[in-house]
Amino acid sequence: MSRSQAEITYRQKQLLEELKKCEDELSGQELHRQLHKGKKRMGLATVYRNLQVLVKEGLVRSRHLPTGEVLYTPVERDIHHLTCVDCGETTRLEGCPVETMSVPKKSSKNFELLFHTLEFFGLCQNCLDKKSS
Questions:
Q1: Of 54, 75, 109, 133, which is least surrounded by CB within 10 A?
Q2: Tens digit of each residue's pLDDT (9 = 90 or more) over 5-31
Q3: What is the pLDDT of residues 38-78, one digit of tens each?
Q4: Tell me: the pLDDT tens digits for 83-112?
């Protein structure tokens, strides 16, 4: 079971607050820069270590890009993307295609669903055009 926000550390609260201020996802480095702009200094390794704890606790979701970069957002934001595997361009989907689905009762016994992820990978129109020419 995930810890409540009251049980997370001060640094983890700072990270979560900063993520909630942003309308989009942030990488660990972007989050690190945001903290420094706001005079909430925290080392980059500390940012990443605490982000991993927040992901593990089900308070933050992470999205891995084909470039290897990881983006973070609070789990309350049900965001899904189309991602080009060639150039890395991502397009945000409107709505959630999984919203109407549910975990089958037999499978969900003794299981608390915290969040889900869904991502589509393919080629964007620009990359398709380059390949066909």
A1: 133
A2: 558 899 999 999 999 998 889 999 999
A3: 888 899 999 999 999 999 998 999 988 878 889 999 988 87
A4: 898 888 888 888 777 777 776 666 666 777
The Cα–Cα gap between 73 and 26 comes to 7
Domain at 5-132: CATH architecture: Orthogonal Bundle (1.10)
Q: Which residue has the tokens 């480095």?
A: 29
User: Domain map of the chain by residue range?
Assistant: 5-132
* Cβ neighbours for 53, distance < 8 A, ≥ 6 positions apart: 8, 12
Q: pTM of the full predicted structure?
A: 0.74
Q: Kindly calculate the radius of gyration of the chain based on its CA atoms and give it in whole angstroms.
A: 17
Sort strands 119-122 and 90-92 into parallel, antiparallel or unpaired: unpaired
Beta strand 60-64 pairing with 70-74: antiparallel
Rounded CA-CA distance 42/17 in Å is 14
- Provide the residue type at 86 as one letter: D
Q: Is 104 exposed, middle or buried (0-12, 13-18, 19+ CB in 10 A)?
A: exposed
